[in-house]
Sequence to fold (149 residues):
Amino acid sequence: MTVDDQNAPQVTQPRQAIDLTEGECWTLLRGSSFGRIVFTRRAMPAIRPVNHLVDERKIIIRTHLGAAIVSRTADASGVVVSYEADDLHPVRHTGWSVIATGLARLVTDPAAIERYATRLEPWIAGEMDYVVSIEPRFISGIRLVGWCA
Fold:
């Protein structure tokens, strides 16, 4: 906890969850660079933290050949995934969370791969020469608000 957190007003009432519109969800995703991709691995849920960018109505991530998500997205029909991003205050427990569910596919167009490589710098070291595009079919979110003392 930082000094700012210690001096911050404390939420004194239970938080309220306010549903976000689809537009608000996309705006928050565009303003964020970090999230978690959720997919199935060995018939079990798997979650990986990744950085992302939003390109129109697609969530774009870069990854490497050994990443578990690469083999699952190689099929042209795609694989169902969820993507979650949030910004929650660790002391006040307020903020927002957005979840997008849809199809993830490997990007195979060399021009698109190059364009994303110049726009999205992975924060994990190593070759990140694969690009995954998530096209959400459903997107929803909440804003957690509380009253401060």
Notes: The chain has one domain: 18-143. The helical segments are 3-7, 22-30, 68-73, 110-119.
